[in-house]
Amino acid sequence: MTETFAPPTRFAVPGRIAVSTQTEATWQTAALAEIRRETAHATTFRFAVPDWPGHLPGQHLMLRLTAEDGYTAQRHYSIASAPDGSGHVELTLDHIEGGEVSGWFHTEARPGDTVEVRGPLSGFFAWPGDRPALLVGAGSGVVPLMSMVRHHRSRGLTVPLRLLVSARSPEELIYAREFGAETTPVFTRSAPDGVPVGRMAAIHVAPLLAARPPGGWEAYVCGSNGFAEHASRLLVAAGQPVDRIRIERFG
Amino acid sequence: MNVTRGFTGRPRVSNAGLPPGQYDAGDDWPVLSAEVTPDLQPADWSFRVDGLVAQPRTWSWDEAHALPASAYEGDIHCVTSWSKFGVRFGGVSLDAFLDVVQPHGSATHAVAYSHTGYTAALPLADLTGGQAWIAWEYGGEPLAPEHGGPARLLVPHLYFWKSAKWIAGVTLLDHDEPGFWEQNGYHARGNPWQEQRYSGD
């Protein structure tokens, strides 16, 4: 007989979030509609995808480029825009040194170009807007979290949402102009006068955990693996239940 | 074919080891676990095989290490499109564990589960015949926690989400029971050579 397995340790995987059960197996043409510089290293690309089925904040898509000889390159990217039924989605991409796909976007792409996308994909990191959300990101890890912030704002949701975001400097803080009272930036290299400089630490996380809403936070952590390891440990140390920490690591 | 204007891509290398849609990650080994990396010590680690077997059994760290050592040298492929060539894992073949528990003839599938509660679904035929390992060494060193240490399942001929980190056990079943990513839209088998990324592929 099969015995029920109970993990002997106090960590666990968060439960799944219901997303559309429809499988997005087909590639669709996405036409580049607009290019918006965010920082010296990050740019937002807005695509028209007429048959986009909609997504939940935090989901990603697969994007494919095809060369004339048929060679293809595909990557997963988090969706930056909120689901708005407009038939458009936005991605914000770092320009990665030597990046095959991001390099094309940052040096070649112009409005009218077409690529292919498939999605939305994965439900694990999705936020349906139904539970208090504590968002913790660094660098371009803020991209899927911004979809959540925008969704919260555009729908006028009253469920609590906070964003703790780390960047090297104010100039490198993606979406800086869009943030409001829900956001606390942390600067690791340089900051405006009077603002401390340093790595995200317990002092940033503790006040948010102390202001825990009824039912507690669902935490969403996104960034490099190094950041995700660091931030998730800070959350656990501050008392966030380990089975309510969802992590998206950018490889 | 939907050609992207101005896209040439990387220099074409003839690499018979690269499945369709994958790229060579070189020295990188991206970490993509969805949960907090557990602080799991070898003394707290155990591995169980149960379900449709004659003799369910749990091995401790030392008991598992008493089984014959076996290594995998080759490539690994992640569904997010990176592949890593020439990796070397050390551990024990899963066959050595299965030989002890004696699977019933009715067993066709398995759920691998992790000490974090993560699960992955696999056809049993992908776990037997020298195709799967319980691995605790990488490149001759102890497997790092963020890569699944102290021990992970290793099924290198399938996409790597099947190779459950912090492996705690394998339950044999007579049906497919979707695991963590399979419930999130990923493929039941995940063969990189047939590009079985998502359900429906």
Automatic annotation (TrEMBL), chain A:
Name of the molecule in the record: Oxidoreductase
Transmembrane portions of the chain: none
Domain FAD-binding FR-type: 25-127
InterPro entries assigned to the protein according to its UniProt record, in alphabetical order: Cbr1-like_FAD-bd_dom, FAD-bd_FR_type, FNR_nucleotide-bd, MRET, Riboflavin_synthase-like_b-brl
Natural source organism: Streptomyces brasiliensis
Organism lineage string: Bacteria, Bacillati, Actinomycetota, Actinomycetes, Kitasatosporales
Keywords (A to Z) from UniProt: 2Fe-2S, Iron, Iron-sulfur, Metal-binding
One function term, GO molecular function aspect: 2 iron, 2 sulfur cluster binding
Cofactor(s) needed: FAD
Pfam families for this protein: FAD_binding_6 (PF00970)
Automatic annotation (TrEMBL), chain B:
Gene3D superfamilies, A to Z: Oxidoreductase, molybdopterin-binding domain
Domain Oxidoreductase molybdopterin-binding: 37-181
Any one Pfam family match given in the protein's UniProt record, by short name: Oxidored_molyb
Listed InterPro entries: OxRdtase_Mopterin-bd_dom, OxRdtase_Mopterin-bd_sf
SUPFAM superfamilies (alphabetical): Oxidoreductase molybdopterin-binding domain (SSF56524)
Region Disordered: start-end pairs: 1-21
Protein name listed in UniProt: Molybdopterin-binding protein
Organism: Streptomyces brasiliensis
